[in-house]
Amino acid sequence: MKQIKIINPENTSDEEVKNYRVREASRAIVFDNEGKIALLHVSKENYYKLPGGGIEQDEDQLTALDRECQEEIGCNIEVINEIGFIVEYRKMFKLKQVSYCYLAKVKGEKGKTGFTEKEIEKGFKSVWLTYEEAIEALNESKALSKEGGHYIVPRDLSFLEESKKYF
Questions:
Q1: Which end of the chain has fewer CB atoms at under 10 Å, N or C?
Q2: From CA 148, how far away is CA 49, in angstroms rounded?
Q3: Is pLDDT of 77 > 90?
């Protein structure tokens, strides 16, 4: 899988990163039968993001992605292609996060989401948008948190832009 970019707005040094905890995550650009893309609207923090999340100890990238998509957008998915990966150096959390992104389509029917309490508190809601609407939603996001504005939105916008050739 190819590296798309490094996100390092806090100018973390190579020396600092050596002591950071590493977190791997799987994300997806999921489209339905109408060609619409799933996004999560984090309403209480005023931004949009792609579905996905951390890879748990007993999971590989695709198993984690399938679980996250069932939880966050209520769908089983079929992975079509790899988009790439992005590395984030989050100095505020002493964290190096590596996010792997895939292109996937909905397999079967859309079901109910299963957000965590934390996600519910943040106002998570799944929405389905055209490619152009998804790009616009991310571009217009005015995240209230540093994490959302400096890391999540730029990361997911980069993944969407990288996937343009498929839409």
A1: N
A2: 9
A3: yes
Domain ranges for the chain: 3-166
Phi-psi domain of 112 (left: phi exceeds 0; alpha: psi -120 through 50; beta: other)? beta
For 59, 87, 90, 106, 120, the CA distances from 95, given in Å and listed in that order, are: 20, 10, 5, 32, 24
Q: What is the dihedral of CA 59, 63, 68, 74, to 10 degrees?
A: -150
* Model confidence pLDDT, tens digit, residues 97-113: 999 999 999 999 999 99
Over the stretch 134-148, which tens digit does the pLDDT of each residue have? 999 999 999 999 999
Class of domain 3-166: alpha beta
